Amino acid sequence: MSPPLIIASLWVLAATVTAMLPMRLQYAPGLVLLAAAVPLLIWIGYDQGAWVTLFAFLAVLSLFRRPLAYFARKAFGK
């Protein structure tokens, strides 16, 4: 397995541990994970190609589905 995919696997494990924390303790690790996701996705795209990057991007979106839904509701007024 390539280094970016190993790091992405560790990122997923860190996201899983973060999800198990109480909500008030999830903000700081969540922001760190979000900040780390962008360069990680770029690295995966450079090393593996577009399809693998798309799947990794969907994994990142699944982690942040509730905040994204919240901001979508705010943006569209529902």
A few lines on this structure:
Helix content is 85%, strand content 0%.
Low-confidence stretches: none
Outline type: flat
Along the chain, the helix and strand elements come as HHHH
End-to-end separation: 44 Å
Number of helices: 4
| Structural class by SSE content | mainly alpha
Quote the beta fraction: under 5%
Evaluate the radius of gyration.
Answer: 14 Å
User: Biggest sheet, in brief?
Assistant: none
Description:
By secondary structure, the chain is mainly alpha-helical. The protein has one domain. Helix content is 85%, strand content 0%. It contains 4 helices and no strands. It is flat, with a radius of gyration of 14 Å. 9% of the residues are buried. The mean pLDDT is 91.
Topology:
Blueprint (H helix, E strand, L loop, with lengths): L2 H18 L6 H22 L1 H14 L1 H12 L2
Question: What are the key terms here?
Answer:
mainly alpha, 78 residues, flat
